[in-house]
């Protein structure tokens, strides 16, 4: 920790700003990567049709072309509004989103009567709806880029967003189950035929608030008072906000019956506190609190029951899914069987039987895809997710202000944690929860929220990579002059 | 703030590493288990997309797959119905498969390593080649006769079994277990219908699903005397040597006396071994057993195949129907001391002696084949889907040599005498030399006796052509004579249509 204190005081030195020695916009790299990603999506669509229909229709390229048009639009927006944004983010996300649309369209093909399959319209079924949601989401992301020309401007709305976040989190919990419960998890608000997962947006709102709050309070929170076992522990009264978030996430766990969301919020909070304070003790406190709480909920669920019952049932399924393979364990068992059947190479796009999987368009989409692309394909998908997360963290490293660092770092980590929670859930690494798989799962809420997240990361990475002097091209590196932080970066606290 | 950001990056990499490791565990290490799991619906759909190969015998298709319009493309049918059920087994959608359908499943389904080239070809042509065909050794004619005669036996027995093998090769010519069952409903694509049919059969008190020819062990009665006679011949007693007999024998230490089936049988104090076998003299063999001792008799029974637990009948040396072990029992006191009463009763195939019908046929076959007992088998050949390439042809193997050629010749003479002059006359076949041994076994005090016959047929050159065992459970008096008659009929059919070897 102390070793890091010195460079932290001057975050703009070359070692702390990877990849910006030559500040080039790299927009052309983004464009070619995007074209490559869309070619992959088109090839995926053709392979699906070849396997499902035994022929490739002349229109196989239409969904891929529609997606390409949408993403090219986004590329142009970035070119004008965030010219120095990270060039890998958009192609990586576009590839995931495109494969998601392709797989959902593949489900539509399987669901359609054999005679109707060849004439499936581009915007028909869940695949077509996902395509439309993609258009909406990308437009929202572009809108956010246009409105938010400097990421620091949203800190002005931090308290509003924080309040909105808490309301969004608690909304499904207080609403009656008929409106908010789907598959045993109260995560939804259903209005007519629409259902929204407010938690997806709450995640973003809360993170903005966390980042703002922690930047304000980081000196206080990082003041150590007790040293125990070689670790500095915070003072008792500083624990207040952590305990509040802990209680909220446990309430989510109990009343929304969802471990994943609760783990997500709490992990998000602990990670941002840790980034802000650089204190390992916060991590330890957070982990102990969370796992202690989860274990307590499990014990209470198996003894007292009541609101804790759902969690203990899920934990029991996790421990032994094959104990009740046709009822409680059915989803998880079928997910594992799909993944296992896929094996190393998979059955090929369109070659599997995803309809045997319950919820294959939502929670189990990763297992459904895994049956068809195998371990190698899934590993590639994981690497793409990892790339997005690491690029987000890189943006956090490169940006100069603390708020931007916390915001980008928190968002990137949250995205990675969400992938871990859902993929770990369907592969029996952790108890299964009702999270969506970012950019793949069917559903507008998740897609919109995650595209907004990407827009924020794009904005922060643009700020981080933007040359400090000049209007582009090469940076005039200061030689022995005053440190760069004077150019607009807020003053960092130099800790003793 | 950059140091913790980097550490968060490391944490994310660790989390993704866990995901990756776990996916490896599922998709590589556990993949085969999950792929073939009973809970995996893909297994069936894929399995029924390929036309399963035929099971045939003597040019007759016994199990064929027919195309349907349903979700599962091919329906398994058994044109022979109940007649071949215990040989073929069945291949249901939702239940466990059995018999040859189980042991040759890989080849029939087309997933065997042997058919790898076919699957490669399919990848390029886009076709789905059918699975391979399995040719059995059965003689359809012998099977017909065995099935019909057993069902229409004149004793009214409802349970029993018949098995015929070629003594020179071990090829099974006929195998029937009574009562039998129709396997077609079990293979129904309606899993409810299949389950209902299975439950009905499973709950039937007569246990029709049981393969009695291979899996049922019963006291062998006097057929066991062939084993004792073999032991005697190897211990200095000739076939014309006189042995002690009498109308009644009470072993020392036991109040229970052993008598003969009729007062006319060996009442004199001495009879030749030949005569004792021909007339099935109980007192003579009880005394002979006590004279020889338990170890000699047990050893000889083991030489003939008793106590073997790992025998299976299917493809030679590779799985198939499991065969229950035949047992001699201890023939001794619980403390290991001599028990002449147990020994005397065991020597006439009672007490704790238990034998499968297959073991009975294998004893007769070894005697007929000059003392060489061949390994029994059912699968003659594996034939590729195109019916031209042969993958596996059975190459008969000797299982063991229970007796020398000389002892076998003496036993043959005695068994021929049984059919010519003794208790097995109804087994005789014109133009062939038939030998055998009847047996009437007491099972329980309140149940009728089981009727046994083991025997063989030699052609005019003295070559063995068939060995057979028939048992009619609880057939009562005359059961063994009826068994002998049925055995003769089966051998006659096997001579006319030898089936495949």
Automatic annotation (TrEMBL), chain A:
<dbReference type="InterPro" id="IPR001182">
    <property type="entry name" value="FtsW/RodA"/>
</dbReference>
<feature type="transmembrane region" description="Helical">
    <location>
        <begin position="60"/>
        <end position="81"/>
    </location>
</feature>
<feature type="transmembrane region" description="Helical">
    <location>
        <begin position="127"/>
        <end position="147"/>
    </location>
</feature>
<feature type="transmembrane region" description="Helical">
    <location>
        <begin position="261"/>
        <end position="277"/>
    </location>
</feature>
<dbReference type="GO" id="GO:0008360">
    <property type="term" value="P:regulation of cell shape"/>
</dbReference>
<feature type="transmembrane region" description="Helical">
    <location>
        <begin position="364"/>
        <end position="386"/>
    </location>
</feature>
<keyword id="KW-0472">Membrane</keyword>
<feature type="transmembrane region" description="Helical">
    <location>
        <begin position="88"/>
        <end position="107"/>
    </location>
</feature>
<dbReference type="GO" id="GO:0015648">
    <property type="term" value="F:lipid-linked peptidoglycan transporter activity"/>
</dbReference>
<dbReference type="GO" id="GO:0032153">
    <property type="term" value="C:cell division site"/>
</dbReference>
<feature type="transmembrane region" description="Helical">
    <location>
        <begin position="31"/>
        <end position="48"/>
    </location>
</feature>
<feature type="region of interest" description="Disordered">
    <location>
        <begin position="468"/>
        <end position="496"/>
    </location>
</feature>
<feature type="transmembrane region" description="Helical">
    <location>
        <begin position="406"/>
        <end position="427"/>
    </location>
</feature>
<keyword id="KW-0812">Transmembrane</keyword>
<feature type="transmembrane region" description="Helical">
    <location>
        <begin position="191"/>
        <end position="215"/>
    </location>
</feature>
<keyword id="KW-1133">Transmembrane helix</keyword>
<dbReference type="GO" id="GO:0005886">
    <property type="term" value="C:plasma membrane"/>
</dbReference>
<feature type="transmembrane region" description="Helical">
    <location>
        <begin position="236"/>
        <end position="255"/>
    </location>
</feature>
<feature type="transmembrane region" description="Helical">
    <location>
        <begin position="159"/>
        <end position="179"/>
    </location>
</feature>
<feature type="transmembrane region" description="Helical">
    <location>
        <begin position="282"/>
        <end position="301"/>
    </location>
</feature>
<dbReference type="GO" id="GO:0051301">
    <property type="term" value="P:cell division"/>
</dbReference>
<feature type="compositionally biased region" description="Low complexity">
    <location>
        <begin position="1"/>
        <end position="14"/>
    </location>
</feature>
TrEMBL record, chain B:
<dbReference type="GO" id="GO:0071972">
    <property type="term" value="F:peptidoglycan L,D-transpeptidase activity"/>
</dbReference>
<dbReference type="GO" id="GO:0008658">
    <property type="term" value="F:penicillin binding"/>
</dbReference>
<dbReference type="InterPro" id="IPR001460">
    <property type="entry name" value="PCN-bd_Tpept"/>
</dbReference>
<dbReference type="GO" id="GO:0005886">
    <property type="term" value="C:plasma membrane"/>
</dbReference>
<dbReference type="GO" id="GO:0071555">
    <property type="term" value="P:cell wall organization"/>
</dbReference>
<feature type="domain" description="Penicillin binding protein A dimerisation">
    <location>
        <begin position="52"/>
        <end position="134"/>
    </location>
</feature>
<dbReference type="InterPro" id="IPR050515">
    <property type="entry name" value="Beta-lactam/transpept"/>
</dbReference>
<dbReference type="Pfam" id="PF00905">
    <property type="entry name" value="Transpeptidase"/>
</dbReference>
<dbReference type="InterPro" id="IPR054120">
    <property type="entry name" value="PBPA_dimer"/>
</dbReference>
<dbReference type="Pfam" id="PF21922">
    <property type="entry name" value="PBP_dimer_2"/>
</dbReference>
<dbReference type="InterPro" id="IPR012338">
    <property type="entry name" value="Beta-lactam/transpept-like"/>
</dbReference>
<protein>
    <submittedName>
        <fullName>Penicillin-binding protein 2</fullName>
    </submittedName>
</protein>
<feature type="domain" description="Penicillin-binding protein transpeptidase">
    <location>
        <begin position="160"/>
        <end position="491"/>
    </location>
</feature>
């Amino acid at each position: 920790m102390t070793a890091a204190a010195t460079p932290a005081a001057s975050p703009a030195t070359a070692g702390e700003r990877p990849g910006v020695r030559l500040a080039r916009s790299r927009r052309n790299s983004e464009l070619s990567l995007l074209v490559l990603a869309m070619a992959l999506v088109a090839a995926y669509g053709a392979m699906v049709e070849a396997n499902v229909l035994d022929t490739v229709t002349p229109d196989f390229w239409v969904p891929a072309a529609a997606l390409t048009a949408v993403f090219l639009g986004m590329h142009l927006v970035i070119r004008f509004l965030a010219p120095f944004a990270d060039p890998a983010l958009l192609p990586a996300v576009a590839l995931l989103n495109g494969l998601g649309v392709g797989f959902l369209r593949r489900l539509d093909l399987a669901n359609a009567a054999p005679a109707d399959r060849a004439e499936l319209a581009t915007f028909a079924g869940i695949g077509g709806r996902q395509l439309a949601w993609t258009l909406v989401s990308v437009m929202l992301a572009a809108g956010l880029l246009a409105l938010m020309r400097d990421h620091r401007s949203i800190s002005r709305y931090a308290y509003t967003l924080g309040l909105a976040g808490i309301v969004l989190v608690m909304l499904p919990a207080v609403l009656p189950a008929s409106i908010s419960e789907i598959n045993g998890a109260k995560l939804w608000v259903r209005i007519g035929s629409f259902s929204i997962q407010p938690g997806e947006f709450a995640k973003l709102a809360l993170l903005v608030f966390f980042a703002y709050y922690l930047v304000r309070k980081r000196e206080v929170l990082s003041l150590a008072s007790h040293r125990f076992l070689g670790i500095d522990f915070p003072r008792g009264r500083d624990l207040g906000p952590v305990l509040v978030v802990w209680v909220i996430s446990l309430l989510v766990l109990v009343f929304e019956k969802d471990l994943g969301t609760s783990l997500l919020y709490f992990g998000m909070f602990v990670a941002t506190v840790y980034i802000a304070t650089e204190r390992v003790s916060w991590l330890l406190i957070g982990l102990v609190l969370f796992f202690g709480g989860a274990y307590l909920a499990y014990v209470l669920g198996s003894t007292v029951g009541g609101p804790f019952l759902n969690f203990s049932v899920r934990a029991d399924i996790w421990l032994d899914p094959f104990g009740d393979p046709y009822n409680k364990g059915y989803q998880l068992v079928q997910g594992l069987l799909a993944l296992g059947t896929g094996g190393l190479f998979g059955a090929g796009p369109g070659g599997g039987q995803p309809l045997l999987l319950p919820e294959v368009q939502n929670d189990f989409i990763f297992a459904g895809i895994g049956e068809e692309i195998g371990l190698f394909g899934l590993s590639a998908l994981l690497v793409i997710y990892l790339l997005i997360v690491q690029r987000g963290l890189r943006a956090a490293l490169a940006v100069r202000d603390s708020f931007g660092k916390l915001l980008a770092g928190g968002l990137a980590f949250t995205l990675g944690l969400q992938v871990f929670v859902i993929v770990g859930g369907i592969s029996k690494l952790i108890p299964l929860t009702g999270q969506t798989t970012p950019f793949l799962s069917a559903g507008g809420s998740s897609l919109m929220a995650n595209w907004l997240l990407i827009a924020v990361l794009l904005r922060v990475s643009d700020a981080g990579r933007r040359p400090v002097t000049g209007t582009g091209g090469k940076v005039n590196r200061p030689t022995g002059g005053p440190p760069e932080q004077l150019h607009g970066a807020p003053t960092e606290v130099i800790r003793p | 703030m950059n140091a913790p950001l980097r550490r968060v990056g490391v944490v994310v990499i660790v989390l993704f590493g866990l995901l990756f490791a776990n996916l490896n565990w599922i998709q590589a290490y556990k993949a085969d288990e999950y792929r073939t799991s009973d809970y995996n619906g893909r297994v069936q759909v894929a399995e029924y997309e390929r036309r399963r190969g035929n099971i045939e015998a003597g040019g007759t298709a016994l199990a064929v797959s027919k195309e349907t319009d349903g979700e599962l493309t091919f329906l398994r049918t058994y044109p022979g119905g109940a007649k071949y059920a215990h040989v073929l087994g069945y291949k249901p959608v939702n239940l466990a498969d059995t018999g040859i359908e189980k042991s040759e499943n890989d080849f029939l389904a087309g997933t065997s390593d042997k058919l790898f080239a076919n699957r490669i070809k399919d990848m390029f042509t886009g076709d789905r080649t059918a699975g391979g065909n399995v040719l059995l050794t059965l003689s359809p004619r012998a099977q017909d006769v065995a099935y019909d005669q057993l069902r229409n036996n004149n004793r009214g027995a409802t349970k029993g079994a018949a098995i015929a093998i070629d003594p020179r090769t071990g090829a099974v010519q006929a195998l029937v277990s009574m009562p039998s069952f129709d396997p077609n409903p079990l293979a129904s694509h309606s899993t409810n219908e299949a389950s209902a049919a299975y439950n009905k059969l499973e709950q039937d008190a007569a246990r029709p699903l049981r393969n009695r020819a291979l899996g049922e062990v019963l006291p062998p009665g006097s057929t066991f005397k062939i084993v004792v006679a073999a032991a005697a011949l190897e211990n200095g007693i000739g076939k014309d040597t006189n042995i002690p007999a009498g109308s009644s024998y009470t072993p020392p230490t036991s109040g229970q006396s052993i008598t003969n089936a009729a007062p006319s049988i060996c009442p004199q104090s001495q009879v030749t071994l030949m005569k004792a076998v021909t007339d099935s003299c109980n007192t003579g063999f009880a005394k002979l057993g006590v004279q020889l001792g338990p170890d000699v008799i047990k050893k000889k029974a083991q030489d003939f195949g008793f106590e073997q637990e790992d025998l299976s009948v299917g493809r030679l040396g590779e799985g198939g129907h499991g065969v229950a072990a035949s047992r001699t029992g201890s023939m001794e006191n619980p403390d290991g001391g001599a028990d002449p009463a147990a020994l005397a009763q065991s020597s006439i195939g009672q007490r704790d002696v238990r034998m499968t019908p297959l073991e009975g046929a294998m004893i007769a076959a070894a005697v007929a084949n000059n003392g060489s007992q061949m390994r029994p088998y059912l699968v003659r050949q594996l034939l590729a889907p195109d019916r031209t390439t042969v993958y596996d042809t059975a190459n008969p193997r000797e299982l063991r040599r229970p007796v020398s050629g000389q002892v076998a010749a003496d036993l043959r003479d005695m068994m021929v005498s049984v059919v010519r002059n003794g208790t097995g006359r109804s087994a005789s076949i014109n133009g062939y030399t038939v030998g055998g041994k009847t047996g009437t076994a007491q099972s329980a005090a309140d149940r009728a006796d089981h009727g046994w016959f083991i025997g063989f047929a030699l052609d005019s050159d003295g070559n063995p052509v068939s060995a057979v065992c028939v048992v009619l459970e609880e057939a009562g008096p005359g059961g063994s004579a009826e068994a002998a008659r049925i055995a003769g009929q089966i051998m006659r059919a096997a001579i006319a249509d030898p089936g495949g070897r």
